[in-house]
């Protein structure tokens, strides 16, 4: 794709530094395209190389790059940098998008956006010989989410992670060691060709969750439920809130007997308090 317009470039270049909040307000102000409008713009660029059409496609999907980039903030890298890399993937996707395939652009672009963010994460973790195969990449990006605590995995925990990811416990322990080697140099080879027009068939797989309106609605619903849950928790008495947090939200959950011993009541009484608190939460959220 030829260079986007000045407006599109300004939005993308605004990501780094102290302009992240302003950037997010700007991209969220861009209307979401309907399926018909998206198909029309994609056709204009695909058949006529209409740069303005490509610009509008990019601008309308910048908010989804932010949505995807947020899921990678656990690696300790700046969100602005993650968004910037995702934007590169979005532009590559717009360049290669074929509107005749019958899928929405966001469903196609998510593969390119994540691919750019993956490369950025791996390079900036600077891990020796990590992610040189597809299996290693999968393990790298899943291991952190599988770990239940910050300490080293025991062999039993490593085996559980291995079973979940379809690898061996030895591979899990090796990858865990690489994750801890943050300062090691990494200049891993890559076979990616930015100018290649060859697109994997997997990029055109239909996703039932690919409608932009549905994605926005889901995000808004999750944020609303999170706020409601927080407010409902704060409305509980201190003992009920403590029981729920330690039974459901803590990394190392307490048993009924643990709490019974601490509060000087029976385990059955703790169970009753827990059930009553859950009922209050449900009623508060429903209201």
UniProtKB/TrEMBL annotation:
Where is it localised?
Cytoplasm
> Which residues form the DNA-binding region?
256-275
Region feature Sigma-70 factor domain-2, mapped onto this chain: 57-126
Q: Which SUPFAM superfamilies match?
A: Sigma2 domain of RNA polymerase sigma factors, Sigma3 and sigma4 domains of RNA polymerase sigma factors
Coiled coil regions in record: none
Record keywords, A-Z: Cytoplasm, DNA-binding, Sigma factor, Stress response, Transcription, Transcription regulation
Chief location of this protein within or outside the cell: cytoplasm
Q: Where is this motif: Interaction with polymerase core subunit RpoC?
A: 81-84
Which residue range or ranges hold the RNA polymerase sigma-70 domain? Answer: 81-94, 255-281
Checking InterPro entries in the record gives: RNA_pol_sigma-70_dom, RNA_pol_sigma70, RNA_pol_sigma70_r2, RNA_pol_sigma70_r4, RNA_pol_sigma_r2, RNA_pol_sigma_r3/r4-like, RNA_pol_sigma_RpoH_proteobac, Sigma-70_Factor
Question: Pfam families per the record?
Answer: Sigma70_r2, Sigma70_r4
Function comment: Sigma factors are initiation factors that promote the attachment of RNA polymerase to specific initiation sites and are then released. This sigma factor is involved in regulation of expression of heat shock genes.
Its assembly, as annotated, is: Interacts with the RNA polymerase core enzyme.
Which family does the UniProt entry place this protein in?
Belongs to the sigma-70 factor family. RpoH subfamily.
PANTHER family, sorted: RNA POLYMERASE SIGMA FACTOR RPOH, SIGMA FACTOR RPOH HEAT SHOCK RELATED
Name of this protein: RNA polymerase sigma factor RpoH
Q: Which source organism?
A: Alcanivorax jadensis T9
Give the gene name: rpoH
